[in-house]
Amino acid sequence: MSWIEKYRPDTLENIIGQEHIINQIKKYVKSGNLPNLLLYGPPGI
Predict the structure, then answer these.
(1) Whole-number Å distance between alpha carbons of 34 and 7
(2) What string of DSSP letters covers 1-24?
């Protein structure tokens, strides 16, 4: 198992920072209407 696989977050609660974005994603999941999302940033972020 690679380091990335071992330490990546399993749930939204395990993500650190970006609370406003995580809260919006949780709202999408709760409503059952999850749009296509493009997440981007530097490697490891």
Answers:
(1) 25
(2) --HHHHHS-SSGGG--S-HHHHHH
